[in-house]
Amino acid sequence: MLNCDIVVIGGGPAGLAAAIEAKKYGIDDILIIERDKELGGILQQCIHNGFGLHVFKEELTGPGYAEKFINELKGLNIEYKLDTMVLDITEDKLISAINTKDGFMEMKSGAVVLAMGCREKPRGALSIPGTRPAGVFTAGTAQRFINIEGYMVGKKVVILGSGDIGLIIARRLTLEGAEVKAVAELMPYPGGLTRNIVQCLDDFDIPLLLSHTVVDIKGRDRVEGVIIAKVDDNKKPIPGTEKFYECDTLLLSVGLIPENELSKSAGIEIDRGTNGPKINESMETNIEGIFACGNVVHVHDLVDFVTEESRRAGKNAAKFIKNQLSKNDHVINTEAKDGIRYIIPHEIREENLDKNLDLFMRVVDVYKDVKLVIKADGEIVREINRKHLVPGKMERVKISIKDIKNKNISNITVEVQGKGKQYEGI
Fold first, then answer.
1. pTM above the 0.90 mark?
2. Which of 69, 102, 305, 422 is the most exposed place for a label (fewest CB within 10 A)?
3. Helices then strands, each counted (H, E), the chain
């Protein structure tokens, strides 16, 4: 049986950043386990630019961003196993894994960092009527086919969902010569970042149909077209609004799900709002010594934020090995109130905060001219005015440590006040 101080599961941007930070904090015995044949995770198929503006202060492609971390990892001589699948994790941090070189392996780790990322919602999660012809893909699958495998997925394309991956693949397909007929979005507001709406749809005259969805797929052997209808306030198709779009490909960009089968098998508590583990200020789960970071915790907009969060997880995993994390019984709970979908972290032990407390959250609707109100045990500690809040953009709020430390606070809440729905009535 192998023994390691820290095992990082996942060799994408989260796992790489966590492993490197743990190494810098003085832990030498680190192993990364990656199920793909190369490090870098989803970044390797994201050949567009826009990465690294926060972390490196320069604009990079996905592979370029990953390369910086891979080179640093190798320079630090951190070990990794590729093409290796983790089968199970137990509460006492016993890991079972398998690959074609070593066969079945068991390893005991002092600390574990979960960095498995997320996956796309498939067609089966949507219950779209129609036959099952060729030509229906998730947007991420299409991105891999085009950017890595070198295959064109179709010539006439409709995209369901306005998540960032779907917006980016709309532009990519257009540049490769395909015709993107439309992007249909069930909600009355876009799901992706505003910059991607502008750069990927508006700049290429691709229609965005808000409050619309695909109600039927036509074609037997290959997609021949889809029927798109407008939906009402209850997200139900409105009879008489159906329109046929001729196409040979339907791409689904309808949301991402944190990859947490391993987390559940270890007995880690899952937050229903994020579908990721409940974590504390140190990125530690309810299982002592098991940490989580990146999209396995909650889906991020920018990989730069994944990196910052994962560095914190790696550093605190190293602190755990060195017995430097406080285990004080006094815990501050965070709670999402009116207008807020979730808050990360879920629990705070103030003794482990280095500087300020960072809270990450998403709102449940589109708002304009409102304020985020942060309260500690019912008393306001900070108010932040916001001209515009959208569910597609993660919000980050800093709270000064002096506002919460040594005050015996038990609860921090965040809510939206003065709500004005921008898309009301659409």
1. yes
2. 102
3. 7, 29
